Amino acid sequence: MPANRNALIRYKTIDTCLRNKYRQWTLEDLIDACSDALYEYEGIDKGISKRTVQMDIQMMRSEKLGYNAPIVVYDNKYYKYEDEDYSITNTPLSEQDLKTMSEAVELLRQFKGFSYFEEMGDIVSRLEDHVTSAKQKTLPVIDFEKNESLKGLNYLDTIYNAIVNKQVLNIKYRSFKALSASSFMFHPYLLKEYRNRWFVFGAKKGTLFNLALDRIHDITIAEKEKYRENKIFDPETYFDDIVGVTKNVGMKTEVVRFWVDKQNVPYIQTKPIHKSQIIVEENEDGSKVFEINVVINQELQREFFSFANTIRIISPQSLVDFMAWKFRLANEKYQTDL
Asked: What is the pTM of this model?
């Protein structure tokens, strides 16, 4: 169990005292020093007991916190470190400490697009250097998906702050289908990441829009515009019936039934296409029929396309026809001599 803040203050105080070789420290001296430190840092003025400091010394001597402090008593009265160069601040990291710190560093590095993590940049770099040297060039055990060349990440901080501070944005944006970029006022409500791309959900002229950050050309704060509170969608439930981020006005959930061959059944079972996925039929050849209740959007269609001939859509007919048409077009491309 981790030590609490007050205990850590006492350990650090005892450590500071025992490192001072020019004074003799009795138990009463250590009690007074710890009481003074707790008052200074935490405003606690009731003092601490003799037993508390004795237990602290025992804890520092033990392996529980990894200190193994060489605290000895001499002349039956005074406390000191047997090794004059010892300090709990110089305690080497355990293997588990290194693993935990490595994972923390990797996680923190994923958020470097946000300015409030920039202040931690030096800390993360120092942690990374320390962990790397301590691990003696061991290989990382976690690798997060990232795309350093993705456009629009420089807008993350501006959009985040606008959401927190309830500010309207003037955005210059070009969708994939547009011939040129256009500017408009945008009331941002939510940042969303999907497959290593970032999107911002918000209102444009009172209607919910989803903008990809890599399609944004410019952003400025519209200081004089009044921010409209989010009353058009619930971020906690909005994504419940979709795969990805696309749900246009009027789109409704449908029951999608699909067949999966024997080889891919384990994959689909362990990584469902949607959280509503259930098995509705099991066949003798090992294949199975699944069912999901979702809005049919482009992300869902692309998910099915990624399985090519290993999945076959059974219903609804509109999706069956769309998939068949797309595969016919693809087949024509491969039949054409280039």
From this structure: 0.59
